[in-house]
Specification:
The chain is α/β, with parallel strands linked by helices. β2, α4 and β3 form a beta-alpha-beta unit. The radius of gyration is 19 Å and the shape is globular. It folds into 2 domains: about 35 residues, no CATH class; about 120 residues, no CATH class. The longest helix is centred in the middle third of the chain and has 14 residues. It has 4 helices and 7 strands. Helices cover about 20% and strands about 15% of the residues. The chain starts with 17 loop residues before the first helix and ends in an 8-residue tail after the last strand. The strands form 2 sheets. The chain has a 5-stranded parallel β-sheet, covered by helices on one side. Strands 4-6 form a two-stranded parallel sheet.
């Protein structure tokens, strides 16, 4: 006679404090984090409170859908919460537009980011960033910036840079330089 012990079906993760759940969600992409909102009413608002935003257009059918998702995440977040890490990877979905990128980044910069990662290696071409007054703030958000990684981005004119806390600077072309 075998003894069959039933394992109780207990949701231990949902019993964790919100701060711990948000920390766990910070290891997911923004899309995966948003998907957890269907788990329960308690989880629904939690993904809006993560301090790490990781956007990758690879899992979207087109850039229009991706752009809409990024805008909705940025608009529905609690405006008082900081963004500690902003990772934006673009270029795989059709219609990737640098003008939209130039709108996403300044919003994140205003939140006092510590880690900024812009990766356009999948685009197959260079992204030229034209430094408007709002976008040049990327290079002067340095009061809190610790990590700056730019991949496959061309900045024609570099403004004065002030990164007193910067510990990691990673600049990578990622494309054939003969295109210029």
């Amino acid at each position: 006679m075998s003894s069959h012990r039933s394992i109780p079906n207990v949701d231990r993760i949902s019993n964790l404090p919100d701060s711990v759940i948000c920390h766990i969600l910070s290891f997911l992409s923004a899309k995966q984090s948003a998907a957890t909102s269907i788990l329960s009413q308690r989880w629904n608002p939690l993904w809006h409170s993560v301090f790490t935003l990781d956007f990758d257009d690879q899992s979207f059918t087109d850039f229009h859908t991706f752009r809409h998702f990024v805008y909705s995440v940025m608009l529905t977040r609690d405006p008082t919460l900081p963004i500690r890490m902003f990772h934006l990877k673009c270029g795989t979905s059709p219609g990737c537009d640098p003008h939209d990128i130039n709108r996403f980044v300044p919003v994140a910069v205003k939140k006092g980011i510590e880690n900024l990662i812009l990766d356009f290696t999948s685009a197959g071409h260079y992204f030229l960033i034209r430094l408007s007054p709002t976008l040049s703030s990327v290079f002067n958000c340095g009061r809190k910036l610790v990590v700056l990684k730019l991949k496959t981005i061309i900045v024609r004119v570099l403004p004065q840079i002030d990164f007193p806390l910067l510990k990691t600077l990673h600049l990578e072309k990622g494309c054939d330089s003969k295109r210029f």
